[in-house]
Structures are given as C-alpha cells and as structure tokens.
Specification:
Number of domains: 4
Helix content: 25-40%
Largest sheet: 7 strands, mixed
Strand order of the largest sheet: 4-7-2-1-11-14-13
CATH architecture of the largest domain: Orthogonal Bundle
Number of strands: 31
Structural class: alpha+beta
C-alpha cells in the first residue's frame, strides 16, 4: 500500500514537472536589412494538437491590431526525427498542428518595420520587439514558463535590454508565464545606458536604468539621466515608495531614431518611449520628460493598481475598460504635476495644460454629454485602432486621458478643501490594490474615497462627475490656491470650432462640427465648401478670424455653402466664445500661496 502511494506520488510529481516544462523561443536575424526575423518556437509534450496564434491586442493598447498579417512561411517539424509536420491555417492568425511526440518545433518569419509602443521594427540599427507583435503563442498554455534566446547579427554590437529575467547564458531570458512575457518589450541595439540605485523607504535597493538607442552623446545622456532622477523621486513621494520591481530593476527603453513613430507605452517593470529624432541633444531629450513622467507613474497606476476589466489581459480581442479615466487620466494629470513639482516645468505651463483639460469637459460636446466611463469604453475604437470609414467621434468621444485629468484636478482641489489630497487617495489605492495585487472596479474607487473622506462626499462626487454629467463650479476650487480662472474669449463672437482647408478658392470644412454650436445649427458638415461668409469669399483661416473679430455675440452672419452638390444659403447667430484659462494671482495671500505650494510645489 505504501509502495503504491509512493509510486503515485512520484508519478504526480513527474506529471507536474512535465506540465511545467517551459515553452522556448529562439530568435535570429538572418535578413535584418529587410526587416525580417526568423523565430523558432519549441513546444514540449504536445497532446494530439498544438493550436498556435498571433495576438490581436497588446498590453496598454486597448484596440485590436492584426499582428498576424506580418507572419509568414510558417512550418513545423518533430524536434527528434526532424520530419515535417502538417500546418493547418484555421484563420488569418491561428494555426492548428496535429502532433504527438517529444517536442514540436514551429518556425516562422516575422516582418517588422514600425517602431512604436505597439508594433515591432527591425533594421540595420536594431530590433525593437513588442512581444504581441512578434511572437506566436500556444493557446491554452498561458501558465507555462517561457524561455527565450536571441542571436544577434555578427558585428552588430547589439546588446539586449528587457524586463525579462536574465538567464545564466548571455542572450537568454525567461518569463514566468505568457502574461508577463507579452508585457516585456525588448530592445536589441548598440544603445547607451545610464543606471542608478535608489535606496527606498522600505530599505530595499532598486535599480533604475535608462536605455537610449539613438544619436546621443555621453554628456547629453548624463544630463538627461539627472532630469529623470528628479521625476522618479517626485513620483515616489506621491506613494511613499517605489514598487517592488520584479528582479529589482525598472528600465526606460528609449528608441529615438529618424524613422520611428512617436509613442509611450507602460509595462510592469519598464516603459517603451519612441519618437522621430536625429541628433539627441539634451534639449531634444528634455522634450520626452513628459512621456517619462507619465509612463513611470504607470508603474503604480495601471500596472499594479489595476482595473478588473484588464486583468488578465486578453490578447485575442479588444479590451474594454470602465476605468481608463483613472488608469490613464489620473496618470496624465500626475505626469504634468510631477514635472512641475520637480521644477522641470513652469507653473504657467502646468496651468495652461490644466485649462485645456477643463475646457474639454466644459465646452466640448463629448465632454458635456458623455461620462468618463463612456469615454473609457470607446478606447477600443480610438486607441490607435484603424478603420477607413468616417465616425462621429468628434461629438461622441472626449479622450479619457484629458477627461480623467480634469476629474483628477477637480477631485484633488475638492479634497484639499477638506484637508486631504489626491496624493493621499492614490496612497490608499496603492495600499489596498497595488501592494495586494487585487484588481479594482469603479465601485471600489468610490469606497476608497469614502474611507479617505466620508461616504456622503464620495457618493456625491461619483454621482455627479463619474456616473453623471454635472459640471463643477471651478472658481471656488481654484481661488483658495491663489489661481484665477478666466474666460479668455469673454465678449468675443464665436460660431463654434471650425477648420478650413483653402485651396484654389475653395474653403472646405475639415473637422467634425460640434453639436449645439451655431455652425452645427446652420447645417454645416465636414467636407462642405463655404462659398461665401459675411458676403466674402474666404481665402484663409486668418480671414475667417478677422471677420469674427469684427463681430459681437448676437450678430447675424450670412453664409452660403455647398454640401455634396446642394447649395445652401442661411445665416449664423454668433454666440460668446468660451475659453477657460488659469493664471497665478499676483495678489494671492500668504495662505493661498502656501496651499498652492503644497499642491504644485514651492517656487
């Protein structure tokens, strides 16, 4: 009986070990000059069939992207006998391979020629690999550990930077499971690196690394690292500590080259920051500090303080979330606030940007008629999603980045009137959800606010500004901070936002017309051609502005336009423009200056 039990236990251990054999990738670049990589995928212990596929979405990017279009020449064979195995393409990005044996090997070619935070790029200078855009994976095997090795081109001098766990052999790395692997972008290039160690409040040493692929001199890289240190420090002060980065390291993967796309994309222990750039002077690098600040704040907010709607991330479809107004919007707010507190950005720049956010929820149709939850849900169509038909998003979508930043500011100043702050709110979210790894929903956000203040305030705030469309009275929030809120267009005539492309005497409307504006009520639409405005043929946007500057709110302005072959003559009644701006009150009291300094930093 004991012998049988022991055998059963050994068999169970053996079966568990077999089940946990890692899936392995080998990556080489025999044709890198033509943007190709050759990738081998080793799948141990296949039972009858292996279904492999490419992803359709990518962590931090909520819309779908058809990554399977850049995978071809897919073949398979038995690792022991080397005999070919049939590959059945079930869909554009899904392959089924019948197989029973020791290890199945799948090979394919990846084409990669777009460098940003979502896609992959391979050329003579580097390989920039976002994992969902680069690697096929085995369905139903999400929990298996993954190993990967890279063979760099001869004489390339490429080094490898990634948040993946380094192996004992150079060029070898590992991940505990598919979720972590897909969240681990990798840069192979002759980059420059700057590192420093932060002795955190918890007593742990945490390594921060900046990797720069681009034309950067040593002195510029050194100076940039000093600026990033300030951002890291200010971000840590918000939460009281840095996260426990896996493997003790956080990496800024900066890829700034002439052919790149511009982007910033957060990951658990790293971020990708890309952009089109030539020589990287310190001035050019400083222009990336806003992205640095935003993405590093994400290592708390969204990577660890994480919405339930994104956990786990589904790589096969769009990932809709109700909470992006916090995950992205609050991060947007803090991105600028940290730069201001660090002395990198002026108070006036911060206030100008904040005014932009507030104008959106006050004046834009989508900001007035859609809740932040609804704005968050539209990310699956607006976050770099591609389609060729026109939409009405100009009236339906106000960016959850800007929307959430406006709400963050309103909540911050509301809490400061109560002797609290948004910093304290973020710290509580960190303790309850970030450090515990427990994902949250909107109801949890309200409950934490109730705990920080009182249930009545939390209930009223969420009912008004999260679930509802109330708009806050802003002046009482800003006045105690010694900040003046003004309408820069007070007394000026407006017909609503309109853009024109003027060519060969044609003034064509180029933007979605905002619902409720005078031009909307007149029937004007994108693509219409204005043939006469106030009795004149428009020759430029400047001329349109000159005409409006000569008018007053309430004036009637005749207009004639052609809409898809139909000529219409009507009139527009001008309204008063509304452009909210914020400025420092030079007559602020000592108490107001003190409150302002506690909010955005001492100057």
């Amino acid at each position: 009986m004991k012998f049988k039990s022991l055998c059963a236990a050994l068999l169970l251990v053996g079966a568990t070990a077999a089940a946990q054999q890692p899936i392995r990738y080998e990556v080489s670049f025999p044709n890198y000059v033509h943007h190709e990589a050759r990738i081998r995928l080793f799948i141990p212990q296949v039972k009858e069939t292996a279904d492999i596929r490419m992803s359709r979405s990518s962590p931090g990017r909520y819309a779908t992207h058809e990554f399977g279009k850049n995978v071809y020449d897919v073949t398979a064979y038995d690792s022991v006998t080397r005999k070919p195995v049939k590959v059945i393409q079930k869909d554009g990005d899904i392959y089924s391979i019948p197989f029973t044996g020791s290890t199945l090997v799948v090979e394919y070619t990846l084409f990669a020629d777009y460098v940003d935070g979502t896609y992959a790029g391979i050329d003579r200078t580097h390989a920039h690999l976002n994992m969902p855009a680069s690697f096929m994976w085995v369905t139903g095997q999400d929990k298996r550990p993954i190993e990967i090795s890279f063979t760099v081109p001869e004489a390339s001098r490429w080094k490898i930077a990634t948040q993946l766990k380094p192996g004992k052999i150079e060029g070898h790395f590992s991940a505990p499971d598919l979720q972590y692997f897909m969240d681990s972008p990798t840069e192979l290039s002759d980059y420059k690196e700057r590192n420093w160690t932060v002795k955190d409040t918890d007593g742990k040493s945490k390594l921060i690394s900046i990797v720069i692929h681009g034309d950067v001199a040593d002195d510029a890289a050194d100076a940039f690292a000093e600026e990033v240190k300030k951002v890291v420090s200010e971000a840590g002060k918000v939460f009281g500590q840095l996260p426990d980065f896996d493997y003790g390291k956080y990496t800024f993967l900066m890829d700034l080259m002439p052919a790149n796309g511009g982007d910033g994309m957060e990951h658990r222990n790293s971020t990708v920051i890309t952009g089109r750039a030539g020589k990287l002077t310190i001035e050019v690098l400083k222009n990336r500090l806003g992205t640095v600040s935003h993405e590093f704040f994400h290592s708390w907010n969204v990577e660890r303080i994480r919405p339930k709607t994104l956990e786990p991330f589904n790589f096969t479809k769009a990932n809709m979330s109700d909470e992006l107004w916090v995950a992205e919007g609050f991060t947007q707010y803090y991105g600028g606030l940290l730069l201001t507190r660090a002395g990198i950005q002026t108070d006036s720049v911060f206030l100008r940007t904040l005014g932009f956010y507030l104008n959106g929820i006050t004046n834009q149709t989508a900001g007035k008629t859609r809740t932040p939850i609804q704005a968050s849900r539209l990310a699956i169509y607006t976050d770099a999603a591609t389609a060729i038909d026109k939409t009405n998003f100009g009236n339906l979508f106000y960016s959850y980045y800007s929307y959430g930043a406006a709400i963050a500011a309103v909540l911050d100043l509301t809490l400061r009137k109560e002797g609290k702050s948004l910093d304290a709110y973020m710290q509580l979210l960190w303790q309850k959800f970030g450090k515990t790894g427990k994902p949250y929903n909107v109801a949890d956000l309200e409950a934490v606010l109730a705990e920080l203040t009182d249930p009545s305030l939390a209930r009223q705030f969420f009912a008004a500004y999260v679930y509802g469309l109330d708009r806050p009275s802003l002046q009482p929030l800003f006045s105690p901070m010694g900040i003046v809120l003004e309408n820069a267009n007070s007394g000026k005539a407006s017909i609503g936002a309109i853009g024109l492309k003027v060519e060969n005497g044609r003034a064509e409307v180029t933007n979605t017309i905002q619902k409720g504006t005078p031009v909307y009520e007149a029937g004007l639409e994108m693509g219409d051609v204005i043939t006469s405005f106030d009795g004149k043929q428009l020759t430029s946007m400047d001329q349109l502005k000159e005409i409006l500057d000569s008018k007053k709110p309430g004036d009637i302005i005749p207009i004639t336009f052609n809409s898809r072959g139909i000529e219409t003559s009507t009139s527009i009644k001008a309204i008063e423009g509304n452009n909210l701006t914020l400025r420092m009150n030079s007559d602020a009291s000592a108490e107001e200056r003190e409150k302002r300094a506690a909010w955005i930093g001492e100057r």
